[in-house]
Amino acid sequence: MRDEHNASLVKVFKIALLDINDTVVPPTTDHDKTLAPIVQTGSFSTDGNGTYQFEGKILSGEHANILEAGIWIKPADSNNTQLLPADLNGTGDTIRVSTNSLTIGRTYFYRAYALTKMGESLGTIRRIEVSDRNATRHWWSSISATRTDGWITNSWMGDLVPYPNQWAYHRRLGWIYLSPDINKGYWIWRQENGWLWTDSSTWPFLWSHESTGWLYLFPAKNKALFYDYPTGKLR
pTM score, two decimals? Predict the structure, then answer.
């Protein structure tokens, strides 16, 4: 409240609340409230022999005691959901589970979850396509047997989105056209380099048809930088 001289006076009053038994009820603040955990759905990996590992993370620092956390998974064409509880002992806030019960040829949805006394917290839903590594139905089967949300991740060739017409968007190389050979290698056409060849045993070295020599792809995060062995220069 201000007077005509623009002076103000602030007073703080304490108000005591009484219950029906005339007992003083202690005040509470938002800091006293127990918070539900924030859960993040992570990536997956496979050993190539039918075992898949899924990860998640509990992000919030102050949260209710977690009764259970793990991965929720279901087939895309079925309502048969499955909970895969994680062993959180010694893992901190990381959720990590494994399963070998996924069926080849099926698409699954999965998400991280955490159960507390306040209820259930869920991460975002992600998709995984399980295919046979030896199958010929996908031209990219020699790169990876599975995709998550359309992406092949953590493969020997890195991260890419393959398309049925054999084009792919590669996180490092940009748009490329890939033609598989009979030995599980790939001829790669890239506008900046022309035709390149590589396989799982030579990557990140690529044979250049244009210079008839090897290129080395440096492990930079966001751009393609090559060392050209025939010229001894970067390109």
Answer: 0.52
